[in-house]
Design goal:
Rossmann fold, NAD(P)-bd_dom, NAD(P)-bd_dom_sf, alpha/beta
């Protein structure tokens, strides 16, 4: 079994990732938590956890980990200081620690619009932070997949997406489907060293990922 560290495990998308991985025969999830009182969530699920803060030292969190899913985020509405600390500097810190620990693959949850932050004035700083973290990952020499979804919703996932390296429509996508996309990206043949955008669509997730991976 591969040990998968999930940064942002207590967030809405992170919890969905943990739930899916916890029922998998291939992956052993490890929830990265910031406060010790958060451990009860995962103790109840019989999920391993590790105490680490993206604004502090993360070197212990990556020890013995095979792959990482970064699903943490300030949400874009917590102010520039928090956005920089988590979405940019926190991500960069975890990428560097992953490289040092020889982690096999790093899956990044980013955001549509990160390729052109100036076009989205109300989210500009948040998207700039995401873009900086994405670029650092690309240059890290780690194996990676960067997923840039549209606006996240809490609708039930239908397992169907519109997936491409660049989409014209910003669109929406359920968190359930984003969680599945991130988890499927753990498989080495899928979306290798690629940055992709995703919104809800008509194509089943697995076939969309295979098709895009083949180019």
């Amino acid at each position: 079994m591969e040990k998968i560290l999930i940064a942002g495990a207590t967030g809405s998308t992170g919890k969905r990732i943990i739930e899916i991985l916890n029922n998998s025969q291939s992956f052993d999830p490890v929830a990265m938590i910031r406060k010790e009182e958060q451990k009860t969530i995962f103790d109840d699920m019989e999920v391993k956890w590790v105490l680490a803060d993206l604004e502090g030292d993360v070197s212990e969190a990556v020890k013995g980990v095979d792959k990482i899913i970064f699903a943490a985020g300030s949400g874009g509405s917590t102010g520039p200081e928090k956005t920089d600390a988590v979405d940019r500097d926190g991500a960069i810190k975890l990428i560097d620690a992953a490289k040092k620990a020889k982690v096999k693959k790093f899956i990044m949850l980013s955001s549509m619009g990160a390729d052109d932050p100036a076009a989205h004035e109300e989210l500009k700083h948040y998207l700039e932070a995401k873009a900086a973290a994405d670029e650092h990952l690309r240059k890290s020499k780690l194996k990676y997949t960067i997923l840039r979804p549209g606006r996240l919703t809490d609708d039930m996932g239908l397992g169907k997406v519109n997936l491409a390296e660049k989409l014209d429509d910003l669109g929406e996508i359920p968190r359930d489907d984003v969680a599945f996309l991130l988890i499927m990206s753990l498989a080495d043949p899928l979306l290798p060293n690629m940055t992709v955008e995703a919104i809800e669509g008509e194509e089943p997730i697995k076939s969309a990922m295979i098709e895009l991976s083949r180019g």
